[in-house]
Design brief:
Helices cover 29% and strands 17% of the residues. The protein has 702 residues and is α/β, with parallel strands linked by helices. Helix 6 runs parallel beside helix 14 and helix 9 packs antiparallel against helix 12. The N and C termini lie far apart (64 Å). The strands form six sheets. Strands 5-4-16-15-14-6 form a six-stranded mixed β-sheet, covered by helices on one side. A hairpin with a 2-residue loop joins strand 22 and strand 23. It is globular, with a radius of gyration of 25 Å. It folds into three domains: 226 residues, 3-Layer(aba) Sandwich (Rossmann fold); 221 residues, Dimethylsulfoxide Reductase, domain 2 (3-Layer(aba) Sandwich), CATH 3.40.228; 116 residues, Barwin-like endoglucanases (Beta Barrel), CATH 2.40.40. Keywords: Iron, Iron-sulfur, Metal-binding. GO terms for molecular function: iron-sulfur cluster binding; metal ion binding; molybdopterin cofactor binding; oxidoreductase activity.
């Protein structure tokens, strides 16, 4: 008797905004159904390991609440009242709104808005082709990387770093500003393997005792936004105790003698007073680093969430330079390898028809933009039409009360192309059902590694779901946007882009499954020089001349410290708002993705805020009490959870929950600010001064 064949495993790539960009193997049960997801064991970075939320991705793909048909709003904005319409009607109404806005207010009144709900180059970035062909308002994408990238570039001059697989040769691995267990599990796989095989020490530096800390050999818990002080104290000790590599500094860094003099007053005691880290812990970590120059610094995106994040990144990234760690295999640093892929995305993004005179609106400042603030609008007219793909600003954008006010405008026509009914989709006039990654073809790059990966279409989409490229091309036809790529299918775009980028062909990528494009050792370690004309790391940063691609410089850029230092450009606690709050990543969510899946919801339970027991006692708060957090921007209600693993005066709310998870519909980003920090803007989500109070019993029961 013949036995039935089991599920077929097909190669793919994780589409989500995570530096790991895991190579996947997916069970395909039939042409409409997927099963479990596995990490590809033969990929040298993924090594068969993926996070639990992606392993159960079938919960998302086959969720009972998938959006399956185009919808048109019939009730008030936010009411959730819609009726089903045809694709033709949905696209016609979308095009009519775009053409009307263009006719009455100019092309810049239309704002295509997107981000990283998928990291596939075709499905994520294709919206820019429509934008460029029609001269709609541009988007300056600041919500994730701008502060950390500009800080890294300030010293290195190029956005590349050590091959993460070199952790196998490291004597010490420092995970700074990244909860890797939660946000890039493969980093912990490589680090733990190195510890087992060669006794590598794992150091975690963060603001609370998170899942990564619990696997580390050395824990350094500091106050939010004080990383620069800790970095300077560590370098002070390295110079003081003879562990600075002066020969390396003379060859590869500018102004080393002046920098050493600058550090003379940045003692461990000075840093301890700022960071809350005991002097003994600072001394011990400096000694460990000094004795192990073959140290790998994995620098995370926590730096991008603070108003002084660029200065802090510059300071921390100077430590391996002072140590001379870049000379060694397994030494140096990695923040992102995004600068090494060399993509030529003219077809995908329509770069050949881009008009540089069109205004670029700051993605993070969508609240001020939609509420008509002149500066946020770059002095231009209002936004009258929004086309949104791959993002959920009603949950994830800061200064949420302004975001809600803007979306509620009756003169704003909003179209959202989405997979499930998000907070943003609920504010749309037209909702278009979108595919998920296994239902379309795309190509991906690894930000925290070195592979280009193919994510092919594996199953048919449910209902009437259409992929981003289909939707953009259909809208383009209706609004008169012209570009050859609108007539291509995703596979042709992938093939043409690979060839234009000197990365072979789609057929070759399909055969290989991924391409390893890691730079040679000398290049990755800057042994031929850093990315400046003289080849030297910039200890003295030129912040006004920072090479990060920004339409302008923002904030008090001329006040930024040239040499690495602690810069107090954060929301310091005060008498009215005596706590500092970070909105750190939740293990079972990824931004606002996975917040609808049953297992993730069950594991996260409810929105909580972590508070030190001594702070809780001082405020009459007990574990599980309902509390109210207040910042200069608004108030949020959630539950208190007593937690010893943070500094006094620090609160942590692991997010991002949908607004509906909070009793008054106000999500955590009600508390965060949308101002543009120096030098290039960004989202300072972990940089909030707040007050906390226990709610009276009547309010707690409301």
């Amino acid at each position: 008797m013949n036995r039935p064949l089991g599920p077929i495993r097909r190669a793919s790539a994780c589409p989500h905004d995570c530096p790991s960009t895991c190579a996947l193997e997916i069970e395909v049960l039939d042409r409409n159904t997927m099963g479990r997801v596995y990490g590809a064991a033969d990929n040298s970075f993924t090594k068969g390991v993926i996070c639990a939320k992606v392993a159960r991705y079938a919960e998302r793909v086959h969720h009972k609440d998938r959006l399956l048909h185009p919808l048109m709003r019939t009730g008030p904005k936010g009411s959730g009242q819609y009726r089903r319409i045809s694709w033709d009607e949905a696209l016609d109404r979308t095009a009519e709104a775009m053409l009307a806005a263009e006719r009455d207010f100019g092309a810049e009144s239309v704002w295509p808005y997107y981000y990283a709900g998928t990291m596939g180059l075709v499905m994520r970035d294709g919206i820019n082709r429509l934008r460029n062909a029609k001269r709609y308002s541009g988007q300056y994408s600041t919500i994730c990387t701008s502060l950390s990238w500009s800080g890294y570039l300030a010293g290195h001059g190029r956005m590349t770093g050590t091959d993460p697989r070199e952790m196998a040769q490291s004597d010490c691995i420092v995970l700074w500003g990244t909860n890797a267990v939660v946000t890039q599990v493969n980093v912990m796989t490589h680090a733990a393997s190195a510890r087992k095989k060669r006794g590598t020490k794992i150091v975690a530096v963060d603001v609370y005792d998170n899942a990564t800390m619990q696997q580390a050999d050395v824990k350094i818990i500091l106050k939010p936004g004080t990383d620069g002080a800790l970095a300077c104290a560590l370098m002070h000790v390295l110079f003081r105790d003879g562990h600075a590599d002066r020969a390396y500094l003379a060859k590869f860094a500018d102004h080393p003698a002046e920098f050493e003099a600058h550090l003379a007053s940045r003692t461990p005691q000075w840093a301890s007073d700022i960071t809350g880290v005991p002097v003994a812990d600072i001394e011990a970590l400096a000694k460990l680093l000094g004795e192990r120059p073959r140290t790998f610094f994995r620098l995370g995106y926590g730096f991008a969430r603070s108003r002084n994040g660029a200065a802090s990144m510059h300071a921390v990234s100077a430590i391996p330079v002072v140590m001379g760690a870049w000379q060694y295999e397994g030494g140096g640093a990695l923040h992102s390898n995004s600068g090494m892929f060399g993509w030529r995305k003219t077809l995908i993004e329509g770069l050949d028809v881009r008009d540089p005179k069109v205004r670029e609106l700051d993605q993070t400042r969508i609240g001020p933009i939609l509420t008509g603030e002149t500066q946020a609008l770059c002095g231009g007219g209002p936004v009258k039409m929004l086309l949104i793909q791959n993002t959920n600003p009603m949950s994830v954008a800061p200064d949420q009360d302004k975001v809600k006010q803007g979306f509620a405008r009756e003169d704003l026509f909003t179209v959202v192309h989405e997979q499930v009914m998000t907070d943003t989709a609920r504010m749309a006039d037209i909702i278009l059902p979108a595919t998920m990654f296994v239902e379309h073809d795309d190509v991906y790059q690894g930000g925290g590694q070195q592979h280009i990966l193919l994510g092919p279409k594996l199953i048919e989409p449910p209902g009437e779901c259409r992929n981003n490229h289909e939707v953009i091309s259909a809208i383009a036809k209706r609004v008169g946007a012209e570009h050859p790529a609108f007539a291509m299918d995703p596979r042709e775009l992938i093939d043409r882009t690979l060839q234009a980028s000197n990365r072979g062909t789609l057929a070759e990528l399909e055969e290989k499954r991924w391409l390893d494009v890691q730079q040679p050792f000398e290049e990755a370690h800057f042994l031929k020089g850093f990315g400046w004309p003289d080849g030297k790391f910039r200890l003295k940063a030129d912040w006004p001349g920072n090479p990060y691609a920004a339409p302008a410089k923002f904030g008090p850029v001329h006040d930024m410290p040239a040499f690495p230092d602690y810069w107090t450009a954060i929301e310091l606690a005060d008498e009215v708002f005596p706590f500092r709050l970070t909105t750190s990543p939740a293990r079972n969510f990824l931004n606002s993705s996975f917040t609808e899946t049953p297992t993730s919801l069950a594991k996260e339970e409810r929105p909580d805020v972590l508070i030190h027991p001594d702070d809780a006692e001082a405020h009459g708060i007990e574990d599980g009490d309902k509390v109210e957090l207040e910042s200069p921007r608004g108030k949020v209600r959630l539950h208190a959870k007593l937690f010893e693993g943070l500094r006094r005066g620090v609160l942590v709310a692991e997010s991002i929950w949908p607004n509906s998870a909070y009793e008054d519909g106000k999500g955590i980003n009600t508390l965060t600010g949308a101002d543009a920090p120096a030098p290039v803007g960004g989202g300072a989500f972990h940089d909030n001064k707040v007050a906390i109070r226990k709610l009276p019993a009547t309010a707690a029961q409301a």
